[in-house]
Amino acid sequence: MMYKVGIDLGGTNIVAGVVDHKYNIVAKAECKTAVPRPEAEVCDSMAAVVKEALKKAKIKMDDVAHIGIGVPGAVNPETRIIETSPNLFFQNWEIAQMMEDRLHKYVKVENDANAAALGEFLAGSAKGSKNAVAITLGTGVGGGIIIDGKIYSGSNYAGAELGHMVIVKDGNLCGCGRHGCWEAYASATALINMTKDAIKNEKADFSYMLNAVEGDLDKVNGKTAFDAMRDGDATGTEVVNRYIEYLATGIINVINIFQPDVLCIGGGVSKEGETLLAPLRAIVERERFTKRNDKQTVICAATLGNDAGIIGAAML
After folding, report:
1. Which residues does residue 133 pair with via DSSP β-bridges, in sequence order?
2. pTM (whole model) above 0.85
3. CB atoms within 10 A of CB 15
4. What is the pLDDT of residues 155-170, one digit of tens each?
5. CA nearest 2: which of 304, 312, 309, 315?
6. Which pLDDT does position 153 carry in this prediction?
7. For 115-157, how does the pLDDT look when each residue is reduced to its tens digit (9 = 90+)?
8. Which helix or strand (DSSP H or E) is residue 168 part of?
């Protein structure tokens, strides 16, 4: 049996997985990305992680059909060049050729959100659908679009940057330099900033959320407001409701444009499950364009977690 290897090259970690024909990850290995550093050093680390994963899986490189890499940023799958990756501090990186020189296997490259969407489409919450969209709520808002079973990335391979549609004109500054992007309101980073601002603006003598983080705003995370809401805190509830409204605004836009069979949500915030999804669906059901149609987009949590990117990269 031939296997495939998927590499998830992230800003923090490099993870490689050996994937079988049923989309099962047989073995994984990982290391820190430790950027910024030279391209050659990152490739050396990726090659070492692949070899470690193969060793754990007890198979040889001869048993591998090909290798796929998911990378944040603008990737040209035809030239297999990373044109720009701000999180990794690289431009025009001939990553595929450099990895082939090290591992002597054909290497495919794709944007990491696209790879994760493909993983969910093949083996996760979007399995069995024809058209699907995967949203990742993390440091930013990642998006991957599958149309008729194929990754959609546009004529310049930079499509599906869903996080950078504007939902608030002249709104909060986004990392891309534009104001009002969905990412600036619906990412985990945005949720954390929203929570910190709410704590700072509280006028009560006692702040539930400030007490929960022991008076240290640096300890605020994506769960802080949700935990406070569950315990009946009014400020936490207000933050969560506002965050979900922003998230819903972008999701309604995506559904109105693409009408996918499934829209799955991944990333750390998605771990809130139905606490997040139930009120989100209620807003979408009320405001979507197709509210009177029999067939509606299924909104659900992504099920593969960080494995989606590995499986998708392996199966490019």
Report:
1. 145, 263
2. yes
3. 24
4. 888 888 899 999 999 9
5. 315
6. 87
7. 999 999 999 999 999 999 999 998 889 899 999 999 998 888 8
8. none
Separation of alpha carbons 130 and 192, rounded Å = 35
Contact 19, 6 (CB under 8 A): yes
Taking the CA atoms of 23, 28, 32 and 36 in sequence, report the sign of the dihedral they define: negative
In contact, 145 and 151? CB cutoff 8 Å: yes
Helix (H, G, I), strand (E, B) or coil at 135: strand
Report the candidate in 69, 23, 21, 72 with the shortest Cα–Cα distance to residue 49. 69
49-65 tens-digit pLDDT: 999 999 999 999 999 99
| H helices present in the chain, as ranges | 39-57, 95-103, 112-123, 183-186, 188-201, 208-212, 224-230, 234-258, 274-287, 307-314
The mean pLDDT of the chain is: 95
Give the C-alpha distances (Å, rounded to integers) separating 32 from 9, 48, 67, 101, 180.
10, 12, 20, 22, 33
Distance CA 133, CA 266 (A): 11
Tokens matching residue 223: 């769960």
